[in-house]
Amino acid sequence: MNRVGTRSGRSPKRSAENLRLDLAREMLGVCMDTLRRHGITERKLRKVATEIRTSSNSGIPASTRLFQDVSDLGKLANEWAESHLYVDGSGRPRVIPIVGPAPSFSALVQAYFPGRQVSEILRIGMETRIVERVGSRNVGHLGACVLLTGNQTLLLAHAIRSIKWFLNTTYYNARTLNEAGQARPERQAFAELSESDFDDLQDVMREPIVNLTEMCNRWLMARSVPKAGTVGKKIIMGVQAYIFKDI
Question: Which one of 50, 125, 222, 246 has the minimum C-beta count within 10 Å?
Answer without folding.
Answer: 246
